[in-house]
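Predict the 3D structure for this chain.
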Amino acid sequence: MRNLLRVILYKPINWAAKKFASRPVPEKVFSALDTLYTEILENPGKRGLLLPFDPIRDCFIIFSDQHKGNRDGADDFAGAELNYLRALDHYSKNDFTYISLGDSEELWENSIWTVKKKNTAVFELEKILLQKNKFIKIFGNHDLFWDNDPLAAWHLKDIYGEKVRVYEGIVLRTDYELLTANFDLFLTHGHQGDAQSDGNWFSKFFIANIWAPLQAFLRINPNTPAYDAEKKTLHNRIMYEWSASKEKILLVTGHTHQPVFGSLTHLERLFKQFQEALNKQDKEEEEKLRKAIRTREREFTSVALDYMNMKPSYFNTGCCCFSDGDITGIELESGWIRLIKWSDRKGREVLEQLELSTLF
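Done. Predicted structure below.
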């Protein structure tokens, strides 16, 4: 029956996906981010939290896009679960606050009942962080359920043993000594402005409960940045352009599954380092970077033309469901912002880092 329905519905569903989830439009994304950021500042606690942030004393770990599933062959999180558990245990023991930045649960393809049943070990660790007042949960487009389902609050209490608010974003506000004004880190999943999953209550309910499950049942790829390489690159570029247009704001998102640090992808950073090696006439470094670029080129669809001069205002956590089981995230600790990776072979590894004071 599924195959028959797929044959009949494949073309109309693909047409509708392209029609209603077209390429991200900068104006819509900018407007949605502006609206959310302003709402958090003017009405903190409603759509998002406004928290004071001491960059020296406060420690945060930001992960997104776990897509916790039902442990079948389509569960992208299954291979990364062990690294995720190791990471949460580490951050819990070291007094970090964990911000889960959306798409934590894969609720387009799975029922909440199945996800709860198959992820008890993960939820128990998150529960420990919550009990220490060290857990903040943000919703994304694949777990819109937390924002619009009438039973969401009951399920959250069933999972964590207490009431849990799920927000759309968070602003960490620091009153840095050397600044004449506040500096903000604006964190949200990054699906804002997406025609499929950032509309009114009814449209979000329809996407989360009817449209997305239908696509999943028919095994028709949902046309989202996480799966579309061209759209992934474009979406990150739009997020960067929004952040670059602002003063005293750093933007941190997930959604695309592509790590970005200081507005550069890993390949763009390699190209920048290669150009610097050329300028210094460092032949050994040139050859080393040339090999690294060849290895990484197939992972990226494009490189920004202005990568040498991009403002370091945009960061992307990557995801917790890479096919090799690795997970990536953003750390804020002791005045530094870091892109980190947890892997089976090396455990925690710092990929990139910058002093926050240089960004401020």
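Residues 2-20 form the longest helix (19 residues).
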